[in-house]
Amino acid sequence: MDRARWDGMQALFHEATELPAAAHRQFLEQRCPGDPELVAEVLALLEEDARSTLIDRGVASLAGDLIGALTPSPIDSGQFHPYRLKAPLGEGGMGVVYLAERPDLGTLVAIKILRDAGLSPDRRRRFEAEQRTLARLNHPGIARLYDAQAQADRTPWLVMEYVDGVPLTRYCETHRSSVADRLRLFRAVCEAVEYAHQHGIVHRDLKPSNILVKQDGTVRLLDFGISKQVAADSDSRQGHTTVRLMTPAYAAPEQLRGEPSGIHTDVYSLGVILYELLTGRLPFDGGDDPVASNGSVPALLDAMNDPVPPSAAVRRSDDNGRGVATDTASWSDLDVLSLTAMHVDADRRYQSVAALMGDVDRFLAEQPLQARPDNAMYKLRKFARRNRQALAASILAVVVAGGLALTAGLVVGLRVFRDEPVAAAAERRARTLAVLPFRNVGADDELDFLRLALPDEIATALSRIRDLAVRPTTATSRYVDANLDPRDIGRDLQVETVVSGRFVRAGDQLRITLEATDVDSNRILWRDSVDAPAQSLIATHIQIALRVREGLAPVLGVAATSSIRPPTSEVAYNLFLRSTTFPYGSSQNAEALALLEQSVKLDPDYVPAWHALARRYYGESRFGSGDAAMMDKWERAVKRVLALDSDNVPTAAGYIRGRIERGDLAGSYRDAQEMVRRHPDSVDAHFTLSYAFRYAGLLQESARHCETALVLDARTQTSGLRSCAIAFIQMGDYPRALNFLHLDNISGLTKALAIDLLVRQGKEEEALRVGSPGLPLWDSSDLLLACVGRRPATELRALAAGVRPSEDPEINYLFAGHLSYCRQSDAALAMLRRAVEGGYCSYPAIDMDPFFANLRGTPEFARIRAEAIACREAFLAQLTPSSGQTTATTP
After folding, report:
1. What is the mean pLDDT of residues 378-404?
2. Per the omega criterion (within 30 degrees of 0), is the bond before 844 cis?
3. Which of 132, 193, 248, 873 is most exposed, with the fewest beta carbons within 10 Å of its own?
4. Contact in structure between 91 and 14 (CB atoms under 8 Å)
């Protein structure tokens, strides 16, 4: 027997062990058509397994009987020093799991061993892939990996958190949990799965036995043995059969068909789990054995088209759903929640676990769900598709014709936008790194400005490397006075590598020590030092750039691009470095601007100074004085950067976004589309395209590119990704909006958006605790807080009169909502009209925005709404190819 056939046979064996013995032959014949010999071989393994448990004997010894391979030696507890095996916990498809103790510490762990590693290279690869996956995941809802080693014969084993718990469904049955309690547990599971998705990992085998609940009610997600990167997730083919690693009862239809799986696959499995939690049974007739009861995979796939709603399943159950409480009056919403998650059409499921969590939150808060049940036309099309052979052609024609009038208008108005899949983005995830504030270990306080200036220079140099995602100084500067371990800061920033440093002045020399540390292992990856004349910061700059390019970059496994032109004026460079110590968006912005303006006069070709100047001009315009002339200065500075550094993607992306804010929506969209095509792995590019879609009112498209950017780098702050929260706020997906706001918990803009979000959710006390964002141009946030605080009407009118319009139409849209909420109707309508006329299409947001509820019945609102629709249609019309096609596409 060749190895490929053995690998296929072995995978089928492990899959069949999930089924009752009576279903084995039928399952194998269905999976191995035309290969009775393979069926017989796997049945022989299963029969032998029934006589001698795998824990007692192991798959490897059975394989030895069939292919003459050597049987691995018995497990010796001494091979796992310093751990001592205590008892077997069970076996899954990837190995045997033992309870083990570390005597010197008195701690219990779980040790997972791949018993047949030498016989199955493919299983070894999957086992090692699980190890790498677990090493990347650090979430309280996911069982942690402590260590990974190998025995003398190279058999790999993992040391994992021992979870003393019971499967999710059993826990709920034992505790007779209410529907609300089950949903809260389910949401905790979703949070763990969503975290894995954000790190590019799809589980692919979610089921209650892989979700344990501890005595304290916390959940742990286990067994990433068949998980995979979100990208390129097609099933492998071994020997004469297709190996589909999954548990059929919880598998999505695309998994059963052998099609690529992804985030949508995990969403489906979560839907099945939710269904089981609500009803105490699986969604298809046959209980725990759908394959056996329905006869075949095709029968199971057909049953998936028409699942019994949870409400009906609970009513049918003889034992009242195994302890499921039926006292809720909202079973119709629970039906929608569950059936949307496990919809047979992947496109009609929740498009992310976050969206599913959002509707769980809405249900618990007694708010309307975002998901809606299938309409009659959809059900009719599905019925016709399933029964097309039984329907006479004439009747079918009548049915279809009857629907033409209804669907024609939809087809004419539909434009399909195809963005780059999130899966492909996950495959290109960059290595994450942060440069922490340096320490001044000397007595020369005059050099304190270098604590932030030097890290900013290094971060700028590293950010030009394609395969690195570098946290900007705005994210790391808050640690300047923190007496924390660099690893703790790295974990807080969620990066893989931290660069730290210290400097001291000794006489006329400046000595700088640099160090790069791997956050997870605490291993020093690289260390170097720089000695330069203290009076020549340019010499320091050149030496640091050289060390980073020739020392640090190779250690990180990345290729450093050629550096930009170094500074030429000591005075100009000193001014630039000192400007970096003033926080962006602070009252000291004017001081920083004065330093930078003088710097670029003295050295007009130094790109970082121009880039910093552009950022500060923009901040002053949007969040400071509001001087419209600042945006003209911003544009000149940006063009100067691009003239000197045409490959500067962040600056080019920022320029496109600024043009969008200034009304050039269609032209900017085309540039953003081209940027995504040229830089598909750029967070800035995808965020900029999402920006264009958001201003055009295409919220779903905007959200998809925001999600793609987040997958590329879940903690990036270089592109203002936090503002993606606006798209999710307008869609009503408040939990997802909050996730994006959490990317930056310190800025005034984040506080302003948080207030907006909390008030929309009715969380007024929480909004008041946030307090004023302190943004001079965002008086509407103070107005909103005053309304929530029930301030006198005279005070509200005075605050409303102080709300000034912005050059950015999106800001005007937000201000209009705040004015409307505070019953300042005339001012709200005037601000909303300004937003639409400025190029912020606002539709369909204004139809869903709760802040405009009191305006919707007015004639003026109806006119503005019509203009918003026209704005969106005009944008779409400009994208329509001249040939008359009706589909616009994005890369």
Report:
1. 39
2. yes
3. 132
4. no
Closest among 36, 37, 47 to 13, alpha carbons compared:
47
State the angle between helix axes of 36-51 and 59-67 in degrees (0 to 180), rounded to the nearest 10.
130
- Quote helix, strand, coil % in the chain, to nearest 5: 55, 10, 35
Q: For position 159, what pLDDT does the model report?
A: 85
Number of Cβ within a 10 Å radius of residue 370 = 18
d(C-alpha 41, C-alpha 27), whole Å:
14
Q: Is the pLDDT of residue 386 over 70?
A: no
The Cα–Cα gap between 608 and 576 comes to 8
Q: Count CB atoms within 10 A of the CB of residue 533.
A: 12
Distance, in Å, from the CA atom of 753 to the CA atom of 700, rounded to the nearest integer, reads 20
In angstroms, the CA 601 to CA 293 distance is 80
For the ranges 429-443, 505-519, 705-719, which has the lowest average pLDDT?
Answer: 705-719
**Is the whole model's pTM more than 0.70, yes or no?**
no
CA distance 572 to 555: 33
d(C-alpha 441, C-alpha 511), whole Å: 10
The runs of H, that is alpha helices, within 68-178 are 121-136, 168-175
* DSSP type of residue 514: E
Can you spell out the DSSP letters for 609-634? HHHHHHHHHHHHHHHSS--THHHHHH
Task: Tell me the Cα Rg of the chain.
Answer: 30
**Tally of residues, the chain:** 891
Helix axes 393-413, 376-386, angle to 10 degrees: 140
**Of 518, 456, 513, the residue nearest 487 (C-alpha):** 518
Report the chain's mean pLDDT, rounded to a whole number.
Answer: 77
Q: How far apart are CA 9 and CA 241, in angstroms?
A: 9
Q: Residue 824: is its pLDDT beyond 60?
A: yes
Tokens of 175: 């505790």
Instruction: Please compute the mean of the pLDDT values over residues 628-651 and round it to a whole number.
Output: 88
Question: What is the rounded CA–CA span in Å between residue 383 and residue 294?
Answer: 20
- Sorted by sequence, the CB contacts under 8 Å of residue 206 that are 6+ apart come out as 193, 250, 266, 269, 270, 273
Query: Tokens in use for 200?
Result: 């590019």
Virtual torsion, Cα 310, 315, 321, 327, nearest 10 deg: 90
pLDDT at residue 65 tops 70: no
In terms of C-beta density within 10 A (0-12 exposed, 13-18 middle, 19 or more buried), how is residue 802 classed? exposed
Of 201 and 870, the structure prediction assigns the larger pLDDT to 870
CA distances from 166 to 174, 279, 427 (A): 10, 19, 34
Q: 605 near 568, Cβ under 8 Å?
A: yes
User: What's the pLDDT at 262?
Assistant: 80
- Of the pLDDT bands very low, low, confident and very high (cuts 50, 70, 90), residue 126 is low
Residue 508 — φ and ψ, nearest 5°? -100, 15
In the chain the first and final C-alpha atoms are separated, in Å, by 46
Amino acid at 374: D
DSSP 291-349: HHHHSSHHHHHHHTTSPPPHHHHHHH-TTHHHH-----S-HHHHHHHHHHHT-SSGGGS
Residue among 228, 216, 284 nearest 253 (CA): 284
CA distances from 789 to 31, 682, 776, 783, 838 (A): 65, 42, 20, 10, 32
Amino acid at 347: D
Structure tokens at 5: 């056939």
Q: Are the C-beta atoms of 354 and 733 separated by less than 8 Å?
A: yes
Task: State which of 396-405, 491-500, 713-722 shows the largest mean pLDDT.
Answer: 491-500
Beta partners for residue 517, in sequence order? 498, 524
Joined together, the tokens standing for residue 418 give: 């195809």
